Amino acid sequence: MGTTFRSEMAAVMKIGKYSVNAFSLFLAGTIFFLPLVAAAEFSFRKPGGKGHSFVNYTWLLQQDGFWPALGASFRLAVLSGALNLILMVPTMVVLNLKAKRFKSIVDFICILPLIIPVVSLAIGAQVSMPEFLQNTDYELVFFFVIVALPYTYRALDSAISAVDIKVLVEASRSLGASWFSTIMKVIIPAIRTGIIGSLFLSFALAVGEFTLTSLLHWDTFPTWTVVAAQQNILGAIAISVFSFALAIFVLTSVGILSARKKSLNLVIETEEVE
Asked: How many CB atoms lie within 10 A of CB 195?
């Protein structure tokens, strides 16, 4: 009798747990997706609200400066993501292997971009840059790296903490691999998840950064959208939906390509073993 009662109670609690999880997922999905669906529907409306068409997206693609601004944002985002990884991956490896006593200092430095106002960062740091950088939009690459630093640092630190990097490095070095080969062929595959996450964060922040580009008077996609959105309210909603869909498409594509490359490497390694 007691055993049957406990079994029934366990089944009831299990059903209740699944119900709570299902309700939480439904609520989160509703809060997240419902505004997006509503915005997407609104962006397809014709002027005057009668019927639906692609007229707002056609207007968007035909606006002056759309493609140059979008290309500039993508170019700067790719460069900032690459520079961020070039700086942070070796730094995190050294910190976790030979300089753990300095980790708290680096941790504090990486938090500073969240504390320092963007206005102070833009005006003060720009003056300290070489003049040849101040005259080009490539100065934004360094600002984007600084802004993304707290997020990329955390993503890489979590990935490195999840693996025994010391054992991997010692094994690689004992087999005669150089430090460059160790980082490229051993450490990077081991922390691939953290690298992709930091790349996603850096890319998203760079593409969507408005304050820095506006203060420094450069034309990128976020600053262009502010000007273009003032001409057409339905076009402004179309710009928002387009920006969100484009970011999701790019980041998803990178993730799929990375997963396919990993699977291909596993297949090649399996064939070599056989």
From this structure: 21
Kindly write down the DSSP assignment for every residue of 72-138, as one continuous string: HHHHHHHHHHHHHHHHHHHHHHHHHHT-GGGHHHHHHHHHHHHHS-HHHHHHHHHHHS-HHHHTSTT
CA 69, CA 226: separation in Å to the nearest integer?
A: 12
**What's phi and psi for 45, nearest 5 deg?**
-70, 145
Reported pTM: 0.75
Q: Read off φ and ψ for residue 225, nearest 5 degrees.
A: -65, -35
Q: Using alpha carbons, select from 114, 123, 117, 99 the residue that is nearest to residue 152.
A: 114
**pLDDT tens across 120-178, in order?**
777 777 777 777 777 888 888 888 998 889 988 888 888 888 888 888 888 888 888 88
Backbone angles phi, psi at 52, to 5 degrees: -130, 145
Q: Which residue's entry shows tokens 């968007």?
A: 60
∠ CA 221-36-244, nearest 5°, is 25
- Burial code (b: 16+ CB inside 10 Å, e: under 16) for 106-140 equals beeebeebeeeebeebbeebbeeeeeeeeeebebb
